[in-house]
Amino acid sequence: MRILLLLTQGFLALNAMAGGILLMVAPDGSMLQLPSDFMHSTLFADYFWPGAVLFGVLGVGHLVGFVLTVRRSAITARAALILGTGTLLWIGVQVMMTELFWLQGLIASLGLVEVVAGFRLTRS
To answer: Is the pTM of this model over 0.70?
Structure first.
């Protein structure tokens, strides 16, 4: 379970940090080939602030979770539950406010894996 959690957290950390940086550098979404009309029903004029949150909360958060898992910290399971739930909430809001995109399904699945791993670790 620990290896699966490490792979999941590592991937989500890298994905969120890279995506967040690309959105902040090119807030029009062009570096990720995102149409600007994805933001049609959001509070944001462009992708800068969603990119900053993606990088800072989910990216750095998952990096911290990864380190906790590597170190076998006593709070690893709790961190996995929080980060996995946060990922699911992020994707849920994203789907409600933008158009459906294939990557959202992958990220949501990994968030669910993280939640399940967190629950399993709390039992062991």
So the answer is: yes
